[in-house]
Structure formats: C-alpha cells, structure tokens
Automatic annotation (TrEMBL), chain A:
PROSITE patterns xrefs: 2FE2S_FER_2, 4FE4S_HC3
Domain 2Fe-2S ferredoxin-type: residue ranges: 3-92
Alphabetical list of Pfam families matching this protein: Fer2_4 (PF13510), Fer4_Nqo3 (PF22117), NADH-G_4Fe-4S_3 (PF10588)
Family stated for the protein in its record: Belongs to the complex I 75 kDa subunit family.
Protein name: NADH dehydrogenase subunit G
Species of origin: Taibaiella chishuiensis
From TrEMBL, chain B:
Main location: membrane
Protein's name according to its UniProt entry: NADH-quinone oxidoreductase subunit I
PROSITE patterns (alphabetical): 4FE4S_FER_1 (PS00198), 4FE4S_FER_2 (PS51379)
EC number: 7.1.1.-
Length: 361, 173
C-alpha cells in the first residue's frame, strides 16, 4: 500500500490513505470541518454526488499542480491529492453555496414538520437550521404526488423526498431482489415500488433509517409520539437474522420504536432486520445496555439526563418514615385521559385513529 | 452588624407631657384617615366592574379552529416541549377518510390536556405553536375547590360554535 498523503482541510493537516475522498478525510478530522451530507452514505456503494450539500472549495489542487480547482467540488466524490488544500467552513463561497443548495432542496419540500414523524432527527431540518434562510423565493405551487401505500410497515411520503437515492441503494445492496426504485425522470422522478408491490424483504426496514428526511417512516410508530418525548436506549437481543443490536425509543416501560444504532454522522452502524424493527416491541424481548449518548444540542436530549444524575443515593421515602403509603389527595389518572395506564399506544398496529380513542378502556 | 444605613435607634427616653396626653397623635392619625375618604378608591366592585386588561394579558388557553371550523392542532408537541411547567400532554391520531371536515391536517390531537394546576401562564405554548392553534385568551382562570376541575381537556379548550359565529359576525373573539 502506498504511503499516506497529506491533505489540509480548513488549515488542519491530516494524513490519509490514498483514494480517500475529501469528505472522508474531513470526517476523520471531525467536528464542523466535515461538510453536511444528504445523499452520501459511507456504507452504501455508489451513493453520493446528488445533493450537492457537501460542496467544498479546493484552493490548492496538489503539491505537483498547486492551481486551485475552478469550481466548488462535491467532496464525497472527489479524492484527495498529496498536499491538497481544502476550504470547507472557512470559505464564504462554500457557505453561500450551501445556502443555495438548501434552498433548492426545500423548493418542493412541503415543510410539514409538525405532522412529520422524522422531525427532531431530520437531516434536512438540521441543514436548513444551520444553512438555510427563513424565506423561500419560490413563487409556484409545490410539486405534489398522489399518496401511495407501499406496505404495512413503511410509510412513503413522496412529497417530502429529496431524491437522495439512499433507499434505492439500500434495497439493492442489502438484499438480492430489487423491489423498489425510481420511476419517471427529472422533476417528476419519484421513489416507488414499481407496480405498488409490497416490500416484503427481510431487511427492507433499513430504508427508514437511511432516509435523511421523512419520506420513508416507520408505520408502526406513525403519529404515536414525537421523537423527542421518547428516550433512546441501546439494547440487543438474540436474532437469528441480524446482529440484534438496536436502539429502542422508549417511554416508561413501553417500546415505541426500534431503529438501528446510528453513529455521529447519522449513519447506521449495523443493519437490523424487519422482525427486530417492527415486531419486537416488548421491553422483555430486549437486553437494555444503557441510555444512548445524545448530542446535547439535539432536541432529543431534552429532559433526558445522563451521567451522574440518578446515580446518587436516594433519599428515604416518606413511606418508610411513616410506615405506610402516603394518602394521595389527587390521582392524575382518575381525571386525565392522556397516558391512561391500561391503554398502550405502542401496542396498536399502525397509527391510532378516532375509534381507538372512543372505545372505553 | 449594620446591613443598611437606614436603621434608626429606638428612642427610649420618657414621654413628654404632649406625648402623654395622646391627643396630637390621635389628631395626626385621624388626618390620614380623613384624607383617604376623599381619595380615589383602590378597589372596583367586581364582577359588575372589571379592570382594564393589559394588551399582553395571558389567561385561559383556547384551541383555535380555522375558517371552516376544523381543528388547527396537529399534535406536533412543540407546546409541550416549550412548556417549562410540563403542563401540556397530548396523544395524536391519524385522520380517517370522512373526517376531513373535523381536522385540518392528516394528523390531529385525539387528546389534548392542560393541567392548569401546573400552568404558569407564560405563553410559551402560544409562541411555539407552528399552526396558530393554541392561544391564551383574556379569560381569567376560574378557581375551584377540587383539583380534578383543573385538568382541562380538549373539549374544554376548543372554541365553540357560538364563539365561531360571534367571530364571523363581529370579526373579534
């Protein structure tokens, strides 16, 4: 193997193996140097080059040819050269380009975040929060698609799709049969299952995790709760199909959602199977390892305490002091209809409907 | 130790004759009393009379409807997230076919509760709402003897048809 080569990104020099892309080198440095990505996925072959959010400026091509590259380049598809100098967040051109790309990605996006289940862990939300402008200059009707049912477990919202192709690569590469692809072209292009065929593949649930927006969401979790009101814990189970390492999104003792574990770049660490994801929603089936570390700037970390909180010695309860249970003057469940102890929303298949709430329980 | 310079030492010297007969002190006190009789009263006879509200007064919550009478709330949870007192809870449901006249979006709050015992009327929920669904009205929170009265359900918060009609007629409310 050839010697490592030097590349300087935002004035930070790093040694990387030849053939590394600028984006991977920037991720090795980490932090804000790494450009945002919407379509690139390091675990999927052929991904990247579509969304243009990872554009960077190459101010020095290489040691041998120090001319700067004439245009901004997509860092996920450009390999590093020895002595290359790259500007990512230090370049005004790049910041401006990201703002423009964000505006393009949001052109047809319905901005239905209050309804969308992805809100709170959506990469497009993060991107537009960091790089977008508050208004759109688009004066036309947003492009819309007819709602399409693609099976009992996955909900497709084509209007929210940004055409990153990640789900297509996932369906292609994780499994042998391809059931899901892109129909039509250009502005009309859409993700579909071709002849509305149900996706019954054992690993197809992973398209939910790779989707950077809310176009593909978990139907078994649909509208059950908001992401930031559930608490993520890492857990595992003996699974004959997959590694069984997953992340549970719990509320109290209830498992509302199961996803794969994601790393700091929002990429799945290990793919999990449909049985783990959609059908194992009982806390007893899982061995909980501990709470997931959530970035403290994320909305998901609200109200979740990690570290030494809760490990302190518990004070003596009043029950012990007076030798009996204290008399409650008011039990909230006697009046409140929300979070009824005998109703488990997580057990309902698919989203709750009006009849789920009208039945006395 | 002296904390402020305003402390005054109590005069313990024996009273003079003028102080002993108390009459000047009584006259001084009565002067203050008489003075208050002719001043403007500090109280109003509520409920016949009410004090003017501050334009930013924050009272009881209402859940708004749109022009067609459909519920605006989509149970996005941002009010509950913003609430510093954790007074708001909700459960969401998916709109079925045939319920389009009831709910504006495909997701709606099947249950929505505000625990008024917890609420501090800060108005953050109103500020957080992306759908202009929750508002703090100019109604003062009524008092009651029992606690269960203070759990306000969605039916208690939603604006009624009467209020909708009044709004259509007067452009207010």
């Amino acid at each position: 193997m050839a010697d490592n080569i030097k590349v300087t990104i935002d004035n930070i020099t790093i040694d990387v193996a030849p053939g590394t892309t600028i984006l991977e080198a920037a991720r090795q440095i980490g932090g804000e140097v790494a450009p945002p990505t919407m379509c690139y996925y390091s675990k999927l072959k052929g991904s990247g080059g579509k969304c243009r959010t990872c554009l960077v400026e190459v101010s020095k091509g290489s040691e041998k040819d120090p001319r700067p590259m004439p245009k901004l380049v997509a860092s996920c598809r450009t390999g590093v050269m020895d002595g290359m100098e790259v500007k990512s967040m230090t370049s005004d051109k790049v910041i401006d380009a990201r703002k423009g790309v964000t505006e393009f990605l949001l052109l047809n996006h319905p901005l239905d975040c209050p309804v969308c289940d992805q809100a709170g862990e959506c990469h497009l939300q993060d991107l537009s929060y960091e790089n977008g402008s508050a208004d759109t200059r688009f004066e036309f009707e947003r492009r819309t698609f007819e709602p399409e049912d693609i099976g009992p477990n996955i909900q497709l919202h084509m209007n929210r799709c940004i055409m990153c192709f990640r789900c297509v690569f996932t369906a292609d590469q994780l499994t042998n049969t391809r059931e899901h692809g892109i129909l039509d072209r250009g502005d009309h292009a859409r993700i579909s299952t071709c002849i509305s065929k149900a996706l019954d593949n054992e690993f197809i649930g992973n398209v939910i995790d790779v989707c950077p927006v809310g176009a593909l969401t978990d139907k078994t979790f649909r509208f059950k709760n908001r992401v930031w009101f559930t608490k993520p814990v890492d857990a595992h189970r003996d699974c004959p199909t997959c590694s069984g390492k997953a992340r549970l999104w719990m509320r109290g003792e209830e498992v509302f959602r199961v996803t794969a574990r994601k790393d700091e770049w929002g990429e799945v660490e290990e793919w999990i199977c449909n049985t783990c994801r959609f059908e194992t929603k009982d806390a007893k089936d899982w061995v909980v390892e501990g709470p997931t570390k959530v970035n403290r700037h994320s909305v998901i970390s609200q109200g979740h305490y990690a570290g030494k909180v809760g490990t302190a010695k518990q004070p003596v309860l009043i029950d012990k002091v007076i030798g009996k249970q204290p008399k409650l003057t008011f039990d909230i469940h006697s009046e409140s209809e929300v979070n009824k102890p005998n109703i488990h929303l997580s057990q309902i298949e698919g989203p709750a409907h009006s009849d789920d709430f009208n039945t006395p329980g | 130790m002296q904390l402020t310079k305003r402390a005054v030492n109590v005069d313990r010297s024996p009273m003079t004759l003028g102080e002993k007969i108390y009459l000047p002190a009584i006259a001084k006190g009565l002067k203050i009393t008489m003075g208050h009789i002719f001043k403007k009263k500090a109280t109003v006879s509520y409920p016949e009379q009410t004090r003017p509200f501050s334009p930013v007064f924050r009272g009881l919550h209402v859940l708004n409807r749109d022009e067609q009478g459909r519920e605006k709330c989509t149970a996005c949870g941002l009010c509950a997230l913003a609430c510093p007192a954790e007074a708001i809870t909700m459960e969401a449901a998916e709109r079925k076919k045939g319920e389009e006249h009831l709910y504006r979006e495909e997701k709606y709050a099947a249950r929505y509760e505000i625990n008024m015992l917890r609420c501090i009327f800060c108005g953050y929920c109103e500020e957080a709402c992306p759908k202009d669904a929750v508002y703090l009205s100019e109604t003062i929170m009524p008092s009651n003897y029992s606690r269960d009265y203070f759990i306000y359900k969605k039916e208690d918060l939603l604006i009624t048809e009467e209020q909708m009609k009044k709004r259509a007629a007067t452009g207010k409310g």
